[in-house]
Amino acid sequence: MDRLSLRTNLENYRTPFEEEASFIPDFTALTYDKNAFVRERLAGHFTGSAWIVNKRRTHALMTLHRKLNRWLQLGGHADGNENLLEVALLEAQEESGLTSLRIVDAGIFDIDRHVIPQKGEIPEHFHYDVRFLIEAEMNEPLVISEESKDLAWIPFDAVDDLVGFNPSILRMLEKTSKSEILL
């Protein structure tokens, strides 16, 4: 999924979630910026994430992010790569050590624009996060990267308590729970 297919997918993306729907015009507009896929664009830039679930759709793999000290999905900066599905898969593999990652659907699963706080010389900025639904085997050993404090398969019924009020995580959880994709 390069810049042009991302733009097309965003233009055609539909969601019943009002907050998520409100992001679509800004995401689409960002695809026209030549620096949209590099972190040096300090106003905000694209990131790619993987919402990793087990095949039975009972658990999500989450990381306790070292810098943000919050439980989140795996993912990261595009660093110039315009294929955000590829970014999401690479980040998921690097941050978990999993080799059983499998794309459930190459289309966009979720989008979220969120603020990243200032850290040192890097000012507060937005991440325009494009998320993809990925499956993995729960019995495969996990490898915690230096970007994480912890990594765990979280039962769906415990995600809400773990993340507190994080509407984007809760939205992905709801989408997954309603999903009839059981491959």
From TrEMBL:
Gene3D superfamilies with a match to the protein in the record: Nucleoside Triphosphate Pyrophosphohydrolase (3.90.79.10)
CDD domains: NUDIX_Hydrolase
InterPro entries for this protein: NUDIX_hydrolase-like_dom_sf, NUDIX_hydrolase_dom
Record Pfam families: NUDIX (PF00293)
Residues annotated as domain Nudix hydrolase: 43-176
Protein name, per record: Nudix hydrolase domain-containing protein
Organism listed in the record: Cecembia lonarensis (strain CCUG 58316 / KCTC 22772 / LW9)
